[in-house]
Amino acid sequence: MEKTLLLLVCGVFLSVHAQDRCELADTEKYDCAPVYDACMEKGCCWVPVERNGTYKGQGTPWCFYGTDQPSPDDYCKPEMFNWEASDPGFSDSEYQIMYGKYKANLNIDGTGAIVAAPDHETPGGDYYFHWMRDAGLSIKAWMDINDNDYDTVRDALEGYAKWTGIVQHKADPNDIDVRIEPKFTIEDQEPYTGGWCRPQTDGPALRAMAMAKWGQILLDNGHDDEAKATIWPLIKFDLEWVTENWQSTGCDLWEEARSDDFFFNRMAFIYCLNAAADFADQIGEGIGDSYRSVADDIKSVIVTHWNGNYLTESENRPDDGATIHAITTFGKDLYQPDSEECAATINYLTRAFCREYPINQQENEAGDPGVLMGRYPNDSYAGGNPWQLLTAVLAECFYVGGRISMDTVKKTGNNKLSPVTNKQWMKLLNLEEGATLTDLATAQIAAGDAVMTRLHNHVKDDGGKIDEQIDKNTGKQASAEDLTWSYANILHALHIRNGLVEDLAMLQN
After folding, report:
1. Are residues 405 and 338 in contact, defined by beta-carbon separation less than 8 angstroms?
2. pTM for the structure as a whole
C-alpha cells in the first residue's frame, strides 16, 4: 500500500514537472524537432497549436525546448549579437567582378529580358526565366548603383522597355491577366505555362516603378519625346491594373502563400504609385493625383501589419524577411528604415533567424559580427537556409537608417536620444541613456558593416560569384548560382554605404 501510494505521488510530481517545463509563451518556444517521435527522443515538449478551431498553427512550433533544456536561444539573446564592424568586407575588385556578373544577366541576347539566374539545374528547377518581380527590383537597382547615368544604363533599359511592350500584350494561356504572370520564357517572350503560384500582384507595380525611374532619366537627358511616347504608355497600362485590383488575392514574395494583404506588396504599391505620379506630373499627364489617392487608401489599411511588437508580412505568414526588404526598398514615406517599427522588426527577426540557423548560433558564440537572414522560420525550400539577398537588404536597412539619422542631425542638431521615442533603436544597438543622434548613426552604420562582414565571410572564397542561399550548417553557398537578385541587393547595399563613413566623420567634427 505504501509503495503504491509512493508511486502515485511520484507520478503526479513528474506530470506536474513536465507540465511546468512546457508552460512557455509562444514567442519563447524554439523549434526542437519536426515530428512527434523525434521530439520525444530529444526530450522536448510537444504541444499542438490550435488555430481557428483546427490544429494548423503557423509559425509557433509544436515541438519546443522545455525550460530545463539548453536551447538555440542561448546564442541568440540580444547580448549575443555583435553589431560592430569598421568596413563591409567586400573589396573594390570583388565589387567589379560582381558588377560584371550582374550586368551579364541583363538584356539577355538583346531581348531585354533579365534572367533570374543562368542556372538550369537548381533545387527548385530551371531559373532561366524572366521573373516579373526579380526583374523590376533588379533593373531599378541597376539604375541606382550607376547613379542614373544615362549612357551607362541605356542599353539595359531600352531593352527592358522593349521587352515590357511585348509581354504586356501577350495572350495569356493561364486564364489570368498577363500583367500578373510570374515569369516568362526568354527565347519567345511567352508566359510560363507550367504549374506555379499565380497571380503575382506586385509585378505590374514593380515594372511601372522601374519604367518611371527610366522615364525620369530620359527627361533629365533631354529625351522627352521617348519618355512621353514610349515609356508613359507602359507605366499607365500596368498601373491601370494596380489601381483597380490592389486588394485582390495574390502570391507572396516567395511564390508559396496566398493573401490579399501582403505587407511587401502593399508597400510596393504605395511606393510605385507615388513614383509614377511624380513622373506623370513631369510630363503633364493629369493622373498623378489619382495615383496618390490610391496610395493614400493603401496607407490607411497597411497599418494593421504593426502588431505592437513587429511588422508582419501577412496573417498566414506573419514572420518573414520580406518585411525588412519592403521597409528598405519602399519605406520612403511609411515605416522608414529609421523608424521604431523598423528597429523592433529587425530585433524580432534577427533573433528568429539566429535560432533557425545553426551557422548563426555558432558564429554568435564565437563573437563574429552580424547575422545571416532568411525567408521565414521553418522554411523548407532547398533545405531552408539563409539568403544572400535578404542578408544584404538588412545591411542596407541599417545604412539607410544611418543616413537618415545623419540628415536629422544636420537639420535639428545632435540631440540626445529619447528613451521613449528611440526606445527600440537603443535596445537593438545597445545604446545607453545619454546617447545622441550621431551615436545612433555611428551604430547603425557599424551594424550594416557587421551584417555585410558576416555575409562576405561566406562568399569570399567563390571568386565573386553570388548564389541564392548559404547552407545553414556548413556556411557554404548553395542553390541557384549567379542569382541576379543577389547581385542587385549586395551591390545596392555597398552603393548606399559609399560615402557614409566620410560624411559621418565630417558630422562628428
Report:
1. yes
2. 0.89
